[in-house]
Q: What sequence folds into this?
């Protein structure tokens, strides 16, 4: 049951990103939704939805791979070199 819920939670950002692509495409092909005020706002909302959905999915994949030690751990400390 938990896996089904997890898949549905990952499906939602994908749907949001797809809807963002649809809004941007409709703006470029001169299809306008009357709920949104102008075509520029429609394009920007679509772009934000697309970036948000892709960023969430990318962050999830990055976190999962980091947890399973498939990628190198980041160390935010500055490296110091001894000049001898």
A:
């Amino acid at each position: 049951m938990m896996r089904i819920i997890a898949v549905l939670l990952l499906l939602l950002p994908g749907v949001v990103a797809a809807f963002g692509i649809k809004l941007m495409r409709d703006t470029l092909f001169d299809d306008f939704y009357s709920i949104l005020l102008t075509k520029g706002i429609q394009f920007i909302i679509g772009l934000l939805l697309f970036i948000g959905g892709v960023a969430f999915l990318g962050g999830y994949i990055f976190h999962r791979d980091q947890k399973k030690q498939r990628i190198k751990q980041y160390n935010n400390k500055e490296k110091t070199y001894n000049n001898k």
Observations:
- Helices lie at 2-28, 39-67.
- The chain has one domain: 2-67.
- The radius of gyration is 20 Å.
- Residues 39-67 form the longest helix (29 residues).
